[in-house]
Amino acid sequence: MFFTPCKRGWRSTEPNAEQKSASGTMKVWPQVLVALTASLAHLSLGTVLAYPAIAVPQLTKPSLPDPRQNLHKYGAVESSSLYNTTLQRAYNQSQVDVDPLSVYFFDNSTASPDRLNYSLTQPETPSARAPRSTEVWLSQSQVTWFASVHTTGAIVGSVLCGPLVNLIGQRRAILVTSPFILASWLTIWAAPLFSLLVSARLMLGICIGVTGTAAQIYNVEIAHESVRGSLTCLTDFFVGLGLLSTYALGMSGLGWRWTAFVLGLVVNVPLTIGIAMFPDSPRWLVTKGRQEDARRALVFLRGRSYDVSSELENILRAGNGGAKNTLGQQVRSLMNPVVYIPFLTSCGLFIFTQLSGPYVVYSYTVYIFQAAEVGVSPYLSSVLVGVARVVGSAAGLVIVERAGRRPAMIVGGIGTSLSLCCLGFYFFLQRSHGGLGQWLPLASMISYTLIVGATISPIPFLLSSELLPLSFRSLGSAVSKIVFYLASMMATSTFPTLKDSLGPDTVFWIYAASALLLALLVWRKLPETKGRSLEEIEEYYKGLYKEAASHQI
After folding, report:
1. Where are the domains of the chain?
2. What is the pLDDT of residues 8-36, one digit of tens each?
């Protein structure tokens, strides 16, 4: 089957041709099993992203209205009555006559399940109703740090991942990092101080920066090109599962401490046991001169009836070529448009995707619904958003291979922009008219998350592996991932400040504009890579450069 370069991608000379192999029947299920296990690292990533959404409302002390306020609107008696009613409601909610789970379904307050659970086991005395010495309350600035510090750690982790993966391989990098993830979650579970909470979140960020990148590369390198797109996008599907499981634990009334305890055990133990049972990446083994081990790994991944000789030979050639490129040579190759055009395109995709607000939505889901004053519990609403994320990611596994990368990204950028415009419009109405259509924010958030999960969240990670030429792939992947986390940190850390200074409506409209810019970038600069080998994609950029040079002459 042959493809010829054209302006926007490739044109098949055999449009109805199916992939055929003279090497025998290839088994796909071993690759799927390995990819599913490695993707548990991204399940951990999803839990780290979503944890602030359920923990921040429980760690923030509820504010009570000042009885001296609104005296111009209410008389002194009415104002005092209103204040006492609020105090009584807060007191009643902390007592045993209210079931903790029902609070989340029928009450939009920010009372902590930890405090509710504590009241269930203590006698009705004034001292028993006092906060425990181990309670932690966060100020507004501490909330910002708690919600966004993991992105700073992820930048550090992405820098460390390259040398670590080169030294011990992707699989062992995941194995080395998993105990630190477990230790960080247990630190959050037991932490009596904000400093320990934020330090554990920072360590979680470093770990997911390593494991997330290592698992992504591992899935790309163990997968055959016929299933590379779907298996690589499995990682994003598991991010959605991590979000959903965290939101569900938040709604259950388990409390922020025990949620951390459960997340640490349930995610990392299966990942550590599972990944230890599988082989290293054949491509990494070749770079270490372990040709026979690489052959055995390919036989395990493709099946014994499949002849891996041809694929191993191609890997050997590519491995030898990549080994000759030092770090300095890779940096100097950025002067070549064949390298810097796809590299800048990949970075642009990450920047505009993150500035359209997905990490903000994941980290502040409950808060956004509380601010919107929807008619459903914000915790239940967050679970519905988590379900939408999983459904969208599942659809993305099909869309990425059927519809193609380019059209999916364009439709995704426009669709997320419309959803964000609707969400911003609701907050505009709320500020100017007191709020209209309380189901609009829930519908907007669900549609936004569904579209993000199916299109603009998984595809940029796949493209960052596909677009970059082999001679620059190791350095380019690390740098583009750093750009991704920098954009994530910028969006997540600035949301509280922008929301207070500009209003939530303006903030979401800014995110909508970024999503439109993403669609424009894809339309102008991104070729279609579906069904193309990595070598064909590199040849496309070489042909594009030659065409541009001939026009200049």
Report:
1. 3-11+26-60+138-278+325-552, 63-109
2. 444 433 333 334 444 568 888 888 899 89
